[in-house]
Amino acid sequence: MSDPLNVLVWSEETAPKDAYPNGINATVAEHLNEQNRIVARATGIEAPEQGVGEDDLDWADVLFWWGHLRHDDVTEETVDRVETAVREDGLGFVALHSAHYARPFTRLLGTSGDLGEARWEDPGEPEIIEVEAPNHPIADGVDDFALPETEMFGEPFDVPEPDDVVCRSTFPEGGEFRSVVTFTFGAGRGAYVRPGHETFRIYHHPSIREILTNAALWAGSGANS
Ligand code: ZN
Questions:
Q1: What domain range is 198 assigned to?
Q2: How far is ligand 1, taken at its centre, from the CA of residue 177, in Å?
Q3: Which CATH number fits the domain that encloses residue 110?
Q4: Which of 18, 135, 143, 192 has the most C-beta neighbours closer than 10 Å?
């Protein structure tokens, strides 16, 4: 067995405590740490160098990023460090849910990350998630599933053409979205995983957990790993 995969799970730490008493970063890191091959560490915007100093990025094989309200507090220096680590050093980058607007993610994408006008948040309605690329490593062991409560995002999603659309969501109230998509950012692999609104316990759902594990392992197998 090779070295473990090091995953840094970043959050801006604004998630309400009702659904995530320990924060989304710690919740996701705790789950990833249950996997034999993964060592995960939670960090966030209040840590030195906003949690992603050179040492942190050197340690990590993959960076998960969750943000929502504080995208604009992420500094240019932070975005520069993350971009270099991904593009040049092959760090994997996994953007979660409202990180579609995260500055490191939009820098890597080169687009706005904007969503279509159709949006709803409350009350939570179901989301049906279908696996569109069953042979992609991120879909390993994942069948079509439904989340009982979700926040809806609508297309068009302003991203470059993804390498793969791994999962697509439909919403019974109307609309669909490319919910799990992959990109290549220079030497690094990137993925966006849409489900994960901070008021619903979506990061506890077994299929979402499987996708997060798979995304970590896949994104960590980039060019320079
Ligand atoms: Zn949300």
A1: 5-114+178-219
A2: 14
A3: 3.40.50.880
A4: 192
